[in-house]
């Protein structure tokens, strides 16, 4: 049976698999009060309008404070990787990078990986075998990483897409909500992965080929180290959330019984993806540091307070999954952030999502498929499926 309740149950299983204690606590506290002080952790903000208010105030709430998410990455990727910058320097760098993420630019990055994704899905299902969407999305993400690194497909010793994904994932997995900084061992692990990823990117940078992402960064006047930091940041920030979201989107459409209608009428695809992002919240928590005293939702905040923005409760508490309903203004694209730090890689992520969904919908029109088995991931930072296999219906 496929219905909204089934979709709700699986989403809850995914969150509980990742955070069996923390998820119920955050959702429970968010239901009681929009702002709660948690000793030893920080100030939990759970209402969508207040989350947006904090994200929009870059003067009072910064990403690069001592316990903010940006500061975690500086020892790993260097001080100028965009994700760990604030203020005027961040604004100027973001403006310089803007042209790299136009629809035309990201299409060139995504198309080869999307073609390989389609080939794998088609080959397995045509042979009558089930295919694991999670593994396919990891390959898709790895293919995009290879393009960001400027690695030619026929390069000697080129790492397989899955290994490229695993390297990116190994860096992002170092983060934990209760971990305000990384240990020396974790920093060394992150730097090692960055070093492997940066090898081919350095070669592409030095060749100054404007057809590669590193070559474009050089054209923009980035030093080699700045370019490596930016590339590493994009690799580590985007991989886990994409691999979390896409299989959950597939499951959500199947469980809710909307897949057939969407396959036959693509006009609802944009609204459906947007609603699925709100409902799944692939970035369930964002962190900022207060650098000045103030007030959030009637609660006094001191300079130095760690601000935990519960996007997962802020978005999920608004309603169940319903693409036909208009998006509440306070939640609009909240999973990509807001204000100065709104995700610059959003066009790239959306291009990957749309390309993969198009493949699966096209296949459904030719031969309907169904979910044959699934397992949720356990003890991970970003909730998701460990495997999600589809097979011909």
From TrEMBL:
<keyword id="KW-0503">Monooxygenase</keyword>
<protein>
    <submittedName>
        <fullName>Cytochrome P450</fullName>
    </submittedName>
</protein>
<dbReference type="InterPro" id="IPR001128">
    <property type="entry name" value="Cyt_P450"/>
</dbReference>
<keyword id="KW-0479">Metal-binding</keyword>
<dbReference type="InterPro" id="IPR002401">
    <property type="entry name" value="Cyt_P450_E_grp-I"/>
</dbReference>
<dbReference type="InterPro" id="IPR036396">
    <property type="entry name" value="Cyt_P450_sf"/>
</dbReference>
<comment type="similarity">
    <text>Belongs to the cytochrome P450 family.</text>
</comment>
<dbReference type="InterPro" id="IPR017972">
    <property type="entry name" value="Cyt_P450_CS"/>
</dbReference>
<keyword id="KW-0349">Heme</keyword>
<keyword id="KW-0560">Oxidoreductase</keyword>
<dbReference type="Pfam" id="PF00067">
    <property type="entry name" value="p450"/>
</dbReference>
<keyword id="KW-0408">Iron</keyword>
